[in-house]
């Protein structure tokens, strides 16, 4: 290679985070199995279940207005991560998501300044109707992420995340450790009801709000 040739290093192995950034740029979404290690997934699942046993998961709302009725739209119960007051398991996941934020900013120049995340538990039969993650009254959400915490999920347990892509619907089973990411303003999606509890951490990478 001559000295004046630009050298762009895209040779493998690229990191998982970089693979996610490349896929996001090309397709607007991506899914990455086993993105989070099984021990962390187990610890997060145990914590989510314990919070639910203690009544600390609350019926989810939609939009920013507190208490906005969501009952017909979504049936999950949630608990927000309250950084910097994070549990050990939350801190591991938070670190991975922040690392991802830096890579997305470096590779895609998205200007993502903040992260917000919550546990979500969908009891059997609960779903989330077709929607976009970007609110009408707040355009700060740029990239959505979901990490699933479900051990040994079977295809007939239901509970798929259905992405509505230009080519048609695409279903992703919520298997433990899987990361799904997509552009919040562009990919419409829904959660199909499941036969068993369906656990996850949903997160949003935000830029400074323009509205
Ligand atoms: O849990 C999922 O698969 C997606 C959840 C979702 O769409 C949301 O919380 O906005
Ligand atoms: Fe969503």
From TrEMBL:
Tagged with keyword Kinase: no
Superkingdom in the source lineage: Bacteria
Keywords of this entry: Dioxygenase, Iron, Metal-binding, Oxidoreductase, Vitamin C
Pfam families per the UniProt record, alphabetical: 2OG-FeII_Oxy_3
Signal peptide span: none
SMART domains: P4Hc (SM00702)
Protein name per the record: 2OG-Fe(II) oxygenase
Organism: Tahibacter amnicola
């Amino acid at each position: 290679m001559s000295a004046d040739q630009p050298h762009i290093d895209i040779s493998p192995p690229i990191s998982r985070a970089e693979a996610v950034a490349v896929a996001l740029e090309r397709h607007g979404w991506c899914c990455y199995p086993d993105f989070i290690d099984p021990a962390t997934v187990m610890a997060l699942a145990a914590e989510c279940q314990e919070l639910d046993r203690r009544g600390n998961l609350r019926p989810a709302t939609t939009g920013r207005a507190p208490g906005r009725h969501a009952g017909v739209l979504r049936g999950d119960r949630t608990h927000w991560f309250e950084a910097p007051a994070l549990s050990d398991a939350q801190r591991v996941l938070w670190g991975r998501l922040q690392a991802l934020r830096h890579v997305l900013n470096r590779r895609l120049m998205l200007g993502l300044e903040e992260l917000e995340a919550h546990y979500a538990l969908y009891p059997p039969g609960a779903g989330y109707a077709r929607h976009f993650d970007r609110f009408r009254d707040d355009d700060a959400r740029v990239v959505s992420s979901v990490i699933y915490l479900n051990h040994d999920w079977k295809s007939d347990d239901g509970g798929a995340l259905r992405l509505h892509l230009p080519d048609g619907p695409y279903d992703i089973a919520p298997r433990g450790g899987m990361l799904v990411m997509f552009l919040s303003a562009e990919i419409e999606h829904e959660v199909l009801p499941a036969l068993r509890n369906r656990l996850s951490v949903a997160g949003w990478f935000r830029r400074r709000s323009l509205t």
